[in-house]
Amino acid sequence: MEYVYAALVLHELGEKITQAKVKGILEAAGATADDSRIKALVAALKEVDIEEALKTAVMSAAAAPAAPKGAAKEAAAPAKKEKVKEEPEEDTDLGLSALFG
């Protein structure tokens, strides 16, 4: 994800997104830069209109209703019926005498 963030920083600054600049941002932030991942990112972004992609992402996020926390887990997992075994109540007032019968 940090590779994409570096590209977004460059885009926001109006800079051309190059391998050297992405690597520089990552290293300045203390991350270990993987040259093959940087190369793939820069190549993939050549065909992308980043401004349009950001607008689409913002519009999609605004259109989707916010789900309460944990709703995704509840929706993904079917409801389980819990079988409750009724155990006879034990008399806990017997104290130590219950140990010796």
List the main descriptive attributes of the protein structure presented here.
single chain, 101 residues, mainly alpha, Arc Repressor Mutant, subunit A, elongated
Q: Can you describe what's shown?
A:
- This protein is 51% helix and 0% strand.
- It has a domain at 1-50: Arc Repressor Mutant, subunit A (Orthogonal Bundle).
- The chain is elongated and about 70 Å long.
- Helix 1 packs across helix 2 (19-28).
- It has helices at residues 2-12, 19-28, 35-45, 50-63, 71-76.
- With 101 residues, the chain is an all-alpha fold.
> What top-tier CATH class of the domain at 1-50 fits best?
Mainly Alpha
Can you summarize the main beta sheet?
A: none
Helix and strand pattern: HHHHH
Q: How would the global form be characterised? A: elongated
Low-confidence stretches: none
CATH topology of the domain at 1-50: Arc Repressor Mutant, subunit A
Averaged pLDDT: 80
SS class:
mainly alpha
The rounded Rg comes to 29 Å
Q: What distance lies between the first and last C-alpha atoms, to the nearest angstrom?
A: 66 Å
Summarize the topology.
Layout: H1 2-12, H2 19-28, H3 35-45, H4 50-63, H5 71-76
Helix pairs in contact: 1-2
Summarize it.
With 101 residues, the protein is an all-alpha fold.
